Structures are given as structure tokens and as C-alpha cells.
Amino acid sequence: MRPVLFVRCDPLETFGIARDAVRDAGAEVRVWEAIEPDAERPDLADVSGVVLFGSTYNVEHADEQPFIKDLRELTLEALDGGTPFLGVCFGAQVLAWALDAGVGKAPVREVGFEPIHPTPAAASDELLSHHEDGDMGFQWHMDTFELPTGAELLVTGEGVQHQAYRVNARTWGVQYHLEIDRPEIHDWLRAYARVGDLRSEWGKSDEQVLAEAGRHLADHEHRGRETFRRFVACARRAEG
Questions:
Q1: pLDDT digits over 183-214, tens only?
Q2: Residue 179 catalytic?
Q3: Residue of 131, 162, 177, 216 marked active site
């Protein structure tokens, strides 16, 4: 099958477990360095699916960061062409924004592991039906999104309601970082410590986040790998 396109939107994005999970499922990974000014936007005819990952930018920065508008065009192209698409955190917000749904500040900032709750619709969803009520999803975001017209809510949260949704049979947005692994958590914590104080600005200390990882990360990685396996299966079917 054609490779799955990973879209990197931040220098700190390592893709966590995602690259190996996709390869284990039988697909190669192609990376578009969207944040690099000279990186040409790939032709979606050359890939079987698109995964758009997180960013320290938000869609409100689109006028000052032109790559964000390129992401919108790529997302709409995937939707128009039926290319399977998965937006993660910022990627879920870009998907909502591309479909003219509102994106703005969430009622709370979420960081670390927070409980998530599948809706009844998730039970039959090919990507997220393995989620169970009370699973812990890794969060790091201050924005949220309204559901696009016609979208189906698949997962809710307690602090931020909209956690995962499906637009059509092949298009998903997921707010929590299903790709995260321990090295990436450490990278993000170290990077944030250089510019701010996590406890005072986000409500949890580094130590709290790492303690949560000790309790929840193994299960989280297992669910994430299964999600990417299912996404590859969806992309393979879409190729015919």
C-alpha cells in the first residue's frame, strides 16, 4: 500500500509510538515537515492516509504562520478526495476549523492524563470502539472546538467535552495525544520548563504528570497502537 503521511506541525513532535505502530500494521510512513517554509505540500495521490499531529500553535495564529492555512487546504483536499484523515489535538482543531466550526479557548487547560468517556456512537466506530469508559487520555491543550455540521461525537471529557469526533466514514479528530510515549512526555516537559511554570500555569507539576504516566501510560500506548493499526486498515480498504 501507499505510505501514510505524517504531518509534523511542531519541532518537538517525535510521533511517539505512531511511526512504529503504522509500520507494524504494514504501511510505511512519509513525513511532511509542514513547519519548514520550503517543504512542498505532498500530493495526496501518493499516500493512503493522513495523520495531522499537534502543535504549540493554534489556528488563531494562521495569519502569522502561513503553514496553518496550508494544513487547512490539505485537510479539505483529503476530505474531498476521500483520503482517510486523523487529526490529533491541533489536528482535530484544524479539521474543525477547515469545516467552519468554531475553535477557541477551552473552559479549562488540560495537561497530563484525564478520564475520557466514549459515547454510544463509539461502540460501532472502526477507529475508537476499543475505548472504554474511564480510560485515561494524555492531554496538553488550551483550545477546544465546536463540532462541525454533521459530525458525530465519539468521546467526551469532564473538563473539555469534545474529545473525539468523526465527520464521515474516513475522517476523525481526536483531542488527546494518542501517540504519546514516555520520551516525548519528557521532551515536552523539559521544553516547557524553559519558558513557563507548569504547576502555576496548567495546574499540575512535572512530577504529577510523570507519576500519572507511571500509572496510565502502558494502557494508553496499547490503545494508541491499536488506533493506528485500525487507521492503517481503513487506509488499506480505501485504496481498494
A1: 999 999 999 999 999 999 999 999 999 999 99
A2: yes
A3: 177
Structure letter (DSSP) for residue 203: S
Cβ atoms < 10 Å from Cβ of 151: 21
Smallest CA-to-CA distance from 203 within 139, 157, 148 is with 139
Q: Which of 13, 110, 179, 221 is catalytic?
A: 179
How far apart CA 85 and CA 51 sit, in angstroms, is: 6
Q: How far apart are CA 168 and CA 13, in angstroms?
A: 27
33: left (phi over 0), alpha (psi -120 to 50) or beta: beta
Is 177 among the residues known to form the active site? yes
Which amino acid appears at position 151 of this protein?
A
User: Residue 138 in contact with residue 113, Cβ under 8 Å?
Assistant: yes
Dmax (CA) of the chain = 51
